Input
Amino acid sequence: MNQLPDIYPMGDGAVTIDLGNRLSETLNGKVLAMQDWLQQNSFEGLKDIITAYSSLTILYDPVLIKSHYRPPRTVFEWVRERVAVAYRQSAASATSTPVKHRIPVYYGAENGGDLESLARQKQLTPEEVVRLHTARVYRVYMIGFLPGFSYLAEVDELIALPRKEKPVMVAPGSVGIAGSQTGIYPFACPGGWNIIGRTPLQLFNAQSKNPVLLKAGDEVEFYEL
Amino acid sequence: MSLSIIKPGLLDTIQDMGRYGYSSWGINPGGVMDSYAARVANMLVGNEPGEAVMEIHFPGAQLLFEQNALISITGADFTPTLNDNEPVSTWRPIVVRRNTLLHFPKWQYGSRCYLAVHGGFCVPRWLNSYSTNLKAGAGGYQGRRLEKGDEVPFKENSIYFAGLLKESREYQPLNWRVDTGKTYQLPHEILFTIGNEWTQLTHTSQREMLDNNFIIHPFSDRMGYQLRGVALQQQHPAELVSTGVSFGTIQLLPDGQLILLMADHQTTGGYPRIGHVISSQLPKLAQLRPSDSIHFSMVDMPTAEQLLFSQEHELSIIQRACHDHLNQLVC
Output
């Protein structure tokens, strides 16, 4: 922990700390621990925190920070230092116990148009793909792209398949595979993931006080309906 | 106590300064494209800078004021016209009488204009913001663009300045106007700071990015501007895991073209971030249109911050002046 990871600006209103540009439970745990720490040790001008696989980005208001803390040099350098402190002082991983979700899925047919072709490309039967997909507990690494869109990993390499060349419209609740990731589309939208099934669960509900079902750090298990 | 949509425009939504604090749920800040124009629109009518405004694209909606109101129109100039008479000027407060029609017959300049009413529009907040999130179908006016027949209510104190209207007039522009200073000067010259993946570009491509112009493609929208220009090359294309992005991020697509993320950008992305348009330049960027060209110039962080602070200083002077003018009128 003595050596600092890469901390760099994203323009004049955001700073990113990058722990290693890879998919790792340890790095992701540290990202979430830093988020917890920053929420408890917030500062004037901290607008938002974006957590991703192995990086955390702070969106900040340079004008507020300047008038409030009067940094001697640039506001960026001041925020960079705060991020370094967050890195040093936060725990190694998030302390809260992960929430477990069991997610029902209708696999194949009209609910999972790509199941057969995925099975064919991986020289498996559709049943084997479903068995492998439901056999694991996945970690929610991040929520991004769309409100409530979850990035879960990692699927068995026997069913890992790169995303499609061209995105097509997918239905809400669609469960897809992209590389070693699996995830669920909360809305109808153009998507490039290989769709193998569909859950009747509502992943996003704007009216709810807690509009997003899955959060980074949660655990997900799929079962066949 | 409202404004009704007689005829919808291309894309009219209720927005504010954005919804912050929910990015880790995948909910992007959104908000107005041109924060300078939106803030001045509010200042002109005596509102807090973060009140909800209407963001209007061309062709704009036809709107009917169903009550007296103090309004302002800023940003793009679509020749705002009241009751089929002469156009009224933008960047100026105007008192309008009940049953006044506002429409935008002709495009003059820019991409988005902002309508503010004194007191603000009365729409519910979603996650602490009035901004319309079209993806989530939430925020703003019922989570969607404004359509024919919609009635957008005003907050109760909107009636306050209506007494300024002279008996015989249908509407009356007040006698001051905001000069936007440097904000929209040199609209095609866009300043940026380098992004983390800038050094992945070949030296030739780094030079090409600075020497060439890039054209805004017609597919551009509130999510992002697709740029067309010389295809830029990376030295060793590396696979990146998704990382945070923000309004102004310049990403390099696999085909070597650039995409510039705008207000409705997604929260994370996996393409190389080769630069970030600086905050003080986002308002003029927001007013560019498809087929306009952009010339990128690089600045360092101290310069980027200084430009933002001087713009902010200018806005604080405008706010004070607007406040004083309005106060003198009602005292």
